[in-house]
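From the pipeline queue, job 12 of 40. The input is one protein chain; the requested action is below.

Action: predict structure.
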Amino acid sequence: MNPDSKRKFQLIIGFGIFAFAVAVSYFSVSEVENPQRDIYLVIDVSGSMVDQSKITFAKNAASEFVNSFQLDQSSGYRIGLISFESRVNTLAKLTDDPSGLKDAISRLRAEGDTAMGNAIGRADNLLSQETRPDVRKTVLLLTDGMSNEGIHPITAAQNAKRNGITIFTVGYGTDADISTLNQIATMTGGKSYKALSGQDLVTTFANIADVMISPVAHYGSRTLILVAIPILLFIPVIERGLSTMIQKAEETILEKRGTPRPTCSNCGFRNRKASKFCGKCGRSMKGRI
C-alpha cells in the first residue's frame, strides 16, 4: 500500500470513528480511562510446554510484551512475573525495571502439572497487596492445557473479579481449555485470545500490549471528540493490521517470483520475510539468512 492509499484508509477509519463518537456522545457521561496499569504475566510452565519449543516462544512473547511498554519510572506501568505448574512461583514482583524482569523470563523452565487456579489466586493476592491506588489491576494468563491441580480456575477468577482485577487469557496450541479461558476473561472484563503457533503467540502478546497501552476513552463533550480524532487515526492496532496486510502481500509476490525466504541457521526452517523469531525453533532471526 502506497502512502497516499494508506492515508486515505486512515481517513476513512477516522471519519467512521468520528461519526460513531458524535452519536454516542449524546448519551455518554464523561469518562477518561486511567492509562496506568499493574500487570502480572502468569505463564504456564507445565511439562507440555516443552513440546514444539512452546516454552521458547512463550519467553519470546513475554519479552516482546515487556518491550512494548518501555518501562521506566515515568511510564505509569509495572509488570511482574508468575510461573505455574504443580507449584506456583513468583519470579518477579511488580517492577518498572525491564532488565530484571526479562532476566526472570529467560529462566522459565517447563515441568510438572497445571495448577492454573492457584496461579490466578497468587496474582490476585499480590495485586491486592502491591497495587498503587487508582491503578488498573491486570493479569495476562497463558496456558496450553487445562487445570488439573489446585483450586478451580473459575473460582479463582470470581475472587479476582471481586478485587477489581481484569484477566486477559491466551490459549496456546490445540489442547488449551478455551471454554474455561473464555469464561475467565468474560467474567473479569478482559478478553480471550487463541494462538495456534509460536509466531501467533508473539503477535497475540503484542496485540494485547496495544490494547493495554491504548484504551479507547469515551467523552461526554463533543469538543473533546475533535481532539481525539488525530489520536484515533494512529492507534497502534490499526498500524499493526496494515503492516500485517502489507507483509502478506509482499510474501505472496516474493513466492511467485521465486525469491527465497530467510532460512534459520539453527534448524534450517524457511520463515516469513519479516519474522523476528524462527517459526520452528524460536531462535531470533536477527543476522540469519
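Job complete. The radius of gyration is 20 Å.
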